[in-house]
Design brief:
By secondary structure, this protein is an alpha/beta fold. The protein has ten helices and twelve strands.
């Protein structure tokens, strides 16, 4: 959904206190990714900016009923954890700090216990749709108290891997259908309509699948198929994407698969070396100039494009060169 919105020229403010949910999308134009839970003031500022834009759109629509806007999502991942962190942050925040007067971080004496940041998602749910501002959230057990009373105002719901009590609270119909054991299968509930969906993303081969966009970062890949840089800590930094239309096209096309990087021993285990052993591959690497170049280096191990290894060993097999 995020990729589709960005591909169509929309914007997304994505709050990810887990830090890795859409790691592979970092850097795409139109995406504001807040993935540092240690910077709660920064996260709140991003949410406030989304709320300020909501107010501006309503003002503009009031003046000009024909005004049009791009889609703009506010997404809060792991909302249970986010809610707990906001509670703790607000409880320990100093009262009446003049540096924050007039902002969402201004805390008067005898302030309410509910963190004021929740006013913005509430307003988004209640007033945002007509100016194309939408609020999405995800969590394991979304109770009414967790999202401060707006649970029943959220119309479209996706349920997977749920417990009976979750279904009763979020849907309310009986009998309660058992949660399917299949991965990627969930129920889309829109008002009184219930549709069961099986998500199929990327390649059905688990070794090629890019079903979760953070896999791009784990494999050292950009969404445009080129390699990303690796920091000293081993985390992948997605850089220089700019306004690449091809990157957005690849992100939006979930059937697109880029490089799968593996070690030579992993290529052997996957059956992608056409009978060549790891020892033979090491020998070829030393002697054969046509041997594929490594695409990355991690933990003292060279990583190769498995498709290039497959093509190389297949060609050598056809030539009768199997060592």
């Amino acid at each position: 959904m995020v990729c589709q919105v960005l591909r169509k020229g929309g914007r997304v403010t994505y709050i990810d206190v887990k830090r890795t949910s859409i790691q592979g999308l970092k850097g795409l134009p139109g995406l504001t990714l807040c993935d540092n839970p240690r910077d709660m003031p920064g996260i709140w500022a991003a949410i406030q900016a989304w709320g300020d834009d909501l107010d501006s759109r309503i003002d503009e629509r009031t003046k000009d009923p024909t005004a049009e806007f791009c889609r703009d999502l506010l997404v809060i991942e792991e909302v249970n954890q986010f809610s707990e962190m906001c509670d703790e942050f607000w409880e320990n925040w100093p009262e009446e700090d003049e540096d924050y007067r007039g902002t969402i971080l201004w805390k008067p004496k005898r302030a309410k216990k509910t963190p004021p940041i929740w006013r913005i998602p509430k307003k988004g749910v209640w007033e945002g749709a007509f100016v194309r501002k939408n609020f999405l959230t995800a969590g394991q057990n979304i109770e009414a108290a967790t999202i401060r009373g707006i649970r029943n105002s959220i119309g479209l719901r996706l349920l997977g891997g749920y417990q009976p009590q979750n279904w009763k609270a979020l849907v309310g119909t009986t009998p309660v259908p058992p949660a399917p054991p299949q991965k990627g299968r969930w129920c889309l509930v829109n008002g009184s309509t219930q549709v069961w969906v099986q998500a199929i993303i990327a390649d059905l081969d688990a070794n090629k699948s890019a079903a979760i966009w953070r896999d791009y970062a784990r494999a050292g890949r950009r969404l445009d198929g080129t390699l990303a840089s690796v920091t000293d800590q081993g985390a992948v930094t997605i850089t220089d994407l700019g306004n690449s239309r091809s990157a957005l096209d690849d992100a939006a096309n979930t059937a697109s698969v880029t490089r799968t990087l593996v070690s030579l021993s992993e290529a052997v285990d996957m059956g992608r070396t056409h009978g060549k052993t790891i020892r033979a591959l090491h020998g070829d690497r030393e002697r054969d100039k046509a041997f594929p170049e490594p695409r990355d280096y991690r933990s003292r191990t060279y990583l190769y494009d498995v498709d290039e290894i497959d093509a190389y060993t297949a060609a050598r097999s056809r030539e009768g060169i199997v060592t």
